[in-house]
Write a structure and sequence with these properties.
This protein is mainly alpha-helical. The protein is 60% helix and 6% strand.
Length: 470
């Protein structure tokens, strides 16, 4: 028994770093499992439609870079476009981000204590700043952190392999969000300011450019470059801001100030006085990420910046000499600001599989090959029932796509009508879509929060369908 205790003690002493980090990650995951989980519907519907043959940016209207939506290998094809898969993705992203934060902070300070400090801050910050939402920004966090870690880990005589990989990971982040190009630009400038080896600069740029070239070749081979450029660049810069712009509240501004002030002060100080390369590289990665929140002020867009903020806050007071009481005081202030977001927490997670069982069952009962459907909302039902949007054109029901939806409605509905309309039962009965449904379709009944309308062309099957729903 004594030998066992000694062995356990020795194991803990040798692996205490791994054990503590693992406990922090487990704590974070347990907290997330007790909060609302809101994975964006796009993670289910867009990969599904792509895998089923609809063409991105032509048949599927979307303004985002392809990420894990529009390539042949996507969330649907690898079996993760479901509640369990998306929850596992959230857990993997959080765990990998924790490991990256630990490695970066340890690299900067050569001490595990500060690494644990930044990781504990991340538990609070990620959870309370809309970490319950799984969105594109969530995937960017580990990619940019790994890119930064590889860049500062390059050693002489290594042939700049890590710098090349750093560019690769940053480019992978670009495949999710266009604004990552600003990170590349600022890091490139810092490399020039420090007069880095020309080969190192070239390898970083080459790593960044290669995935972009492959992406452009892929869309060019499918003759989609014009559509891709319009929706991801022109539409995003001209149309989207008019509909989606949202100013922050006073509380949101205060919270943003608390998490950004340390790194802004440290960046200015470093540039004026110290000019420490790794710290300025950290600033070059972090600063452009703040722009994500401009235009539509939601904290989920701040998720890629949060890990960098935690690192900055943890290392800032320790750059010259230990001032742990200052850091601890700031940690308390930081946690206090985080608690202002507590209203976002909850103890439930709902998925459309649970809330729309009847809708799914009735659509499946009536489904035939090539069956087309118009969904007023809850577009995940396309995936869950194996059906397709009307005229095989998908437009998200969002304000900034409204004109496009109206065009498709006017062009398509009178040429080839959907077999089934599912209109939300709170829809204005004087609206164009509701009047069209009542004129050309037969209402079967209300199912969940939908009215089901069948095309008059299928009127012979309506009675059977109606009795099946009773």
């Amino acid at each position: 028994m004594t030998d066992l205790i000694v062995d356990v003690k020795n194991f803990i002493q040798k692996n205490h770093t791994t054990i503590i980090l693992s406990l922090i990650i487990i704590l974070h995951i347990l907290i997330l499992l007790q909060t609302v989980f809101w994975p964006a519907a796009e993670f289910r519907i867009l990969p599904y439609l792509t895998a089923k043959g609809l063409v991105p940016y032509k048949d599927i209207i979307d303004q985002h870079f392809p990420g894990i939506f529009f390539f042949p290998i996507n969330l649907f094809t690898i079996g993760l476009a479901n509640p369990l898969g998306l929850r596992l993705m959230q857990i993997f992203i959080v765990a990998s981000t924790h490991v990256a934060i630990y490695l970066i902070t340890r690299k900067l300070k050569n001490s595990g204590r500060y690494s644990f400090y930044s990781n504990i801050m991340y538990v609070f910050a990620q959870t309370l700043f809309e970490g319950y939402v799984l969105w594109i920004d969530s995937f960017i966090s580990p990619l940019v952190l790994i890119s930064y870690l590889l860049l500062i880990s390059e050693t002489k005589g290594a042939g700049f392999r890590l710098t090349f990989l750093s560019g690769i990971f940053l480019s992978l982040a670009l495949l999710f969000k266009q604004l990552i190009v600003l990170v590349f630009g600022l890091v490139f400038i810092v490399l020039l300011l420090f007069r880095a080896n020309k080969k190192r600069i070239f390898m970083f740029a080459l790593g960044f450019v290669l995935p972009v070239i492959f992406m452009l070749i892929y869309f060019s081979s499918r003759q989609l470059m014009n559509d891709f450029f319009y929706w991801t660049i022109i539409f995003n810069s001209k149309v989207y801001p008019e509909y989606a712009f949202r100013l922050p509240t006073l509380k949101e501004i205060l919270i943003l100030f608390v998490i950004t002030a340390p790194f802004i002060v440290l960046t200015v100080r470093e540039y004026i006085k110290e000019k420490r390369r790794n710290i300025l590289f950290l600033s070059a990665y972090a600063l452009p990420l703040l722009i994500f929140i401009y235009g539509r002020y939601d904290f989920v867009h701040l998720q890629p910046f949060i890990p960098f903020a935690c690192i900055f806050i943890s290392i800032g007071p320790f750059l010259k000499r230990p001032r742990f009481h200052y850091a601890f005081a700031y940690l308390l202030i930081f946690i206090l600001m985080c608690t202002l977001q507590l209203s976002k927490l909850g103890e439930y997670t709902t998925f459309i599989e649970n809330t729309h069982e009847l809708s799914i069952r009735e659509i499946n009962r009536l489904n035939n090959e090539g069956f087309t459907i118009y969904l007023d909302s809850h577009h995940e039902l396309y995936q869950l029932t194996g059906t397709f949007p009307y005229n095989y054109k998908y437009v998200p029901k969002l304000p900034w796509y409204l004109d496009k939806e109206k065009n498709i409605f006017s062009e398509s509905f009178f040429i080839k009508r959907p077999d089934l309309l599912m209109i939300l039962n709170n829809t204005d009965k004087s609206s164009e879509i509701y009047e069209f449904a009542e004129t050309h379709y037969t209402k079967v009944k209300s199912v969940d929060d939908f009215y089901m309308f069948f095309s008059e062309e299928k009127e012979s099957g309506v009675e059977n369908a109606s009795s099946a729903v009773q």
